[in-house]
Amino acid sequence: MEFTKSIQAFQEALEYIPGGVNSPVRSFRSVESDPVFIESAQGSKVRDIDGNEYIDYVGSWGPMILGHAHPDVLKALSETMQKGTSFGAPTLLETEMAKQVRKMMPSIESVRMVNSGTEATMSALRLARGYTGRDLVIKFEGCYHGHNDSFLIAAGSGALTFGTPNTPGVTTGTAHDTLTAQFNDLDSVAAHFEKHGDNIAALIIEPVTGNMGVVIPTKEFMQGVRDLCTKHGALLIFDEVMTGFRVAKGGAQSLLGIEPDLTTLGKIIGGGLPVGAYGGKKEIMDHLAPQGPVYQAGTLSGNPLAMAAGLTQLRLLDNDSMIYDDLERKAGMLEEGLKNNLRELDFPAVVNRVGSMFTLFFTKEEKVTSFADVMKCDTKVFSDYFKYSLESGIYLAPSQFEAGFVSAAHTDEDIQRTIEASYNALKKIKQKG
Ligand SMILES: Cc1ncc(COP(=O)(O)O)c(C=O)c1O
Ligand SMILES: N[C@H](C=O)CCC(=O)O
């Protein structure tokens, strides 16, 4: 494969954009390469500016559950834009979106639209603080909730990939108000509640993690977390920016059978446009301005183009009775194929998957159920695996600490090609020794 144009484009971008990218995870720095520049995408494939085509498992980091450039989403966008692109005034589309969200995720009685997942979690935390009159928040090591100061403490995703889980620029005071606990370790949560129970406003969690790779919670852990929040009067916030409408139609909360007090959303809800949302019980949401005293606003919030794309995507997901079964079947086929490869080649690694989210962890451990397990992964092996995959036309997230996404547009042939490419990549790594 030729990457000449991408290499040149990156050199130029470095001159004008910090690190050459508008979000750190897009850089291939942690896998010691230059990023490929994408020109177009269709269905399950992305194409770079050198003309190379890849089967895409990044899916714009989650939103593209129907695949790229879905004709219905494009049609909704093109029809909506003829009427104007932003009004800064209420539209019917916003209420339609709120109704659709409540239908698919009934714990969300009332929802406020924002422009990113980061805005959603930032606003949900402010609301939780305003509602409870308390200051502290519990988050989990390795979980990522966007780049708000309060959550860039022991953060996952790019912050973990690039070795800055506690980024400079966050004040000591802010960091002091964030308590960290261990995923799948209820004692670590209980200890905080015992010590600070009457000043904890909220506990925020990725109910299935994606930002340290896919780690699955035990039922006891999640129920225990719910019970501790209820007992101590703290709000339970499920950050479903990644898992919402992804792991199931009703998100991780429907899979786990646990109702959070607030939910944050993003990615899929925008159909590929910049959107976030947060919602929950009306009684809590009514503390937001103008109804209540907690202030949060946005010039472009509920933007008609974003609403049109997101609503179209959500309705397609809601109305197709087979779509989640089909995602499960294809992602299951991929999981089985990857596991067979590992067995055949006697290659130490673990595949974690929930619905259409998966991670292949390069570790000698039997299971990956905690942040400590994730930290034992061999990122050097991942780096080789990533590069061999890319060269054979498979586009993965350039970090061990991320999830891969299967979309409705992936075909069985795409999955088979991916399994073969994975086998070849593992074999090359073994031969290299
Ligand atoms: C679970 C989770 N929360 C929050 C965010 C932040 O969303 P955004 O990148 O849209 O700000 C992300 C992704 O970046 C995420 O995966
Ligand atoms: N892991 C992040 C979100 O899920 C990746 C997206 C980004 O930060 O650009």
UniProtKB/TrEMBL annotation:
Pathway: Porphyrin-containing compound metabolism; protoporphyrin-IX biosynthesis; 5-aminolevulinate from L-glutamyl-tRNA(Glu): step 2/2. It catalyses: (S)-4-amino-5-oxopentanoate = 5-aminolevulinate. Keywords: Cytoplasm, Isomerase, Porphyrin biosynthesis, Pyridoxal phosphate. It is found in: Cytoplasm. The gene is hemL. HAMAP family: HemL_aminotrans_3 (MF_00375). The modification N6-(pyridoxal phosphate)lysine is found at K267. Homodimer. Its cofactor is pyridoxal 5'-phosphate. This is Glutamate-1-semialdehyde 2,1-aminomutase. GO terms for biological process: protoporphyrinogen IX biosynthetic process.
